[in-house]
Amino acid sequence: MNILIARIPEEGMHFDGDDPAEIMGLENDPFIKVQGDVVYSLYAQHVSEELVVRGKFAVDVALKCARCSEFFSTTVSDSDFLRAYPASKDADQIDITEDIREALLLNMPGFAVCSESCKGLCVQCGKNLNEGPCACEKSGGLDAWQALDNLNL
Ligand SMILES: [Zn+2]
Ligand SMILES: [Zn+2]
């Protein structure tokens, strides 16, 4: 989004709105699907030769669970956005799109799980264990213990 400097009064200005999902640039990301607009609530203020922009952003996304590989919906937000842009009186506008994108990407969870109790996939047959146990679950467990026993001997 662009902030028109001339429209920001000396005492500052509050503005709310949204930017299209495309600004996230994640169309081809296999782990993240953006599911709505980027919603912002910002306050811009002139401070000497700079325009200080602070506020918050949020976007609804679907993230791929690192355990079970299913997509789940969540909201990613940044509520402490704060940037200062050089703004001489003859500059027209400031494009903060890239900073919004960066701020939101930094707030994406590095290890996304659909739920703390997600059981993930069976390492042997690949079944989603959240949907119920698979046939090989038991023997897999036994093999692991047997391997440990052998090590102890
Ligand atoms: Zn999961
Ligand atoms: Zn299995």
Describe this structure in words.
The chain is an alpha+beta fold. 17% of the residues lie in helices and 37% in strands. The chain folds into two domains: 2-117; 119-153, no CATH class. It contains two helices and seven strands; from the N terminus they run E-E-E-E-E-E-E-H-H. Strands 2, 3, 4, 5 and 6 form a five-stranded antiparallel beta sheet that branches. The protein is elongated and about 75 Å long. The model has no long low-confidence stretch (mean pLDDT 89). It binds zinc ion (2 copies). One zinc ion (ZN) is lined by residues 122, 124-125, 127, 134, 136-137.
What descriptive keywords fit this protein?
2 domains; 5-stranded antiparallel beta sheet; alpha+beta; 7 strands; binds zinc ion; elongated
- Report the strand count: 7
Overall residue-averaged pLDDT value: 89
Helix content: 10-25%
SSE arrangement, N to C: EEEEEEEHH
The ligands found in this model are:
zinc ion
Task: Label the overall shape.
Answer: elongated
End-to-end span in angstroms? 66 Å
Count of the domains = 2
Q: Which blocks of ≥5 consecutive residues have pLDDT under 50?
A: none
Number of contiguous helices: 2
